[in-house]
Amino acid sequence: MFFRKKYSMSMQAADKTLQNVFDACNVSHNSIPFDKIMLRSRAETKLVVAFRHLATLFLIIAIVSPLFFSRDTSFMLLNAAPGQPVVVTDHQLYDTAFTMRLMGRDILYDEIKAIKDDGAIIFPKLVDKNNGVVTFPYDGSTLTITVPAGGGYTMTALLAEQK
């Protein structure tokens, strides 16, 4: 069985020994103080290096993770639950218009409207009953869109800027 003897020496003695080695080898003396060299070598332990790599990995994951989520516009549309008489299957927000595609039974396209926060009623500028597409003029304000259907059912959707 082999035992390793652990040697220790003071910082002054280690610094003097290092300077003697430099002198013996005809090399210029170290410009960094010996205590700073020792401090740096202690900071480079395996645990510190492992945590540095782990932190780098987490940083890369944090930077790349948004790529794995679907990009949504800065607006939100709340629509009817699946199985209801009227469902918004697709929507698109443009600079001056909001378009949504509806699917359902007995949709009353002539009665679709939107109400602004100030109470102003906005009617669609385009209604395509064959494809279920409805387009509203949009100026950036919040719209409460109502889509009536047969049997007294009315779907209400809110178009509002997310904060």
Describe, in plain words, how this protein is organized in 3D.
The chain has 163 residues and is of the alpha+beta class. The chain contains 3 helices and 9 strands; from the N terminus they run αααβββββββββ. It has helices at residues 11-24, 34-43, 46-64, and strands at residues 75-78, 86-93, 97-104, 113-116, 121-122, 126-128, 133-137, 143-148, 154-161. It has a 5-stranded antiparallel sheet with strand order 1-9-8-4-5, with no helix packed on it. A hairpin with a 5-residue loop joins strand 8 (143-148) and strand 9. It is rod-shaped and about 100 Å long. The two termini are 70 Å apart.
Question: Which helices and strands appear, and what pairs or packs with what?
Answer:
Blueprint (H helix, E strand, L loop, with lengths): L10 H14 L9 H10 L2 H19 L10 E4 L7 E8 L3 E8 L8 E4 L4 E2 L3 E3 L4 E5 L5 E6 L5 E8 L2
Antiparallel strand pairs: 1-9, 2-3, 3-7, 4-5, 4-8, 6-7, 8-9
Strand sequence of the main sheet, in spatial order? 1-9-8-4-5
Structural class, by secondary structure, is alpha+beta
Mean pLDDT, as a whole number? 81
Q: Note poorly predicted spans.
A: 73-82
Q: Kindly state the number of beta strands.
A: 9
Biggest sheet architecture: 5 strands, antiparallel
Percentage of residues in helical conformation: 25-40%
Percent of residues in beta strands:
25-35%
SSE pattern, N- to C-terminal: HHHEEEEEEEEE
Note the total helix count: 3
What is the approximate shape?
rod-shaped
Q: Radius of gyration, rounded?
A: 36 Å
> N- to C-terminal separation?
70 Å
